[in-house]
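Work Package 4 report. The design task specified in the project plan requires that, given a folded chain encoded as structure tokens, an amino acid be chosen for each position. We show below one input record used in the internal validation round.
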């Protein structure tokens, strides 16, 4: 895994800075969130019809948010908890992985 970054989960949403969005998900509208053990796996969705969570524009500076309160609640992260996560791109899985996100 390479290309590390920091992600924040706050109020049921995964927050991506403009830089993180452009680096890993540029021009995409959706991602799939999966739990793999204690890791958060964020998969880019190339075709919107495939589903997933919508990546919404959050600020004029280009920051984005993925509102996924149901996913985080189902995985033990309440809305009042804020998580700061280290993540890295995994070439083999073609996904951004936040190791230990659910520890």
């Amino acid at each position: 895994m390479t290309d590390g970054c920091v992600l924040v989960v706050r109020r049921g949403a995964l927050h991506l800075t403009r830089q993180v969005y452009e680096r890993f998900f540029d021009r995409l509208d959706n991602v799939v969130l999966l739990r793999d053990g204690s890791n958060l796996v964020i998969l880019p969705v190339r075709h919107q019809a495939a589903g997933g969570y919508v990546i919404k524009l959050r600020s004029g500076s280009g920051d984005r948010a993925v509102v996924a309160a149901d996913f985080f609640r189902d995985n033990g992260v309440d809305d009042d908890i804020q998580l700061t996560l280290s993540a890295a791109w995994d070439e083999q899985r073609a996904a951004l992985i936040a190791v230990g996100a659910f520890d």
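The CA atoms of residues 9 and 79 lie 9 Å apart. Validation will be extended to a larger panel in the next phase.
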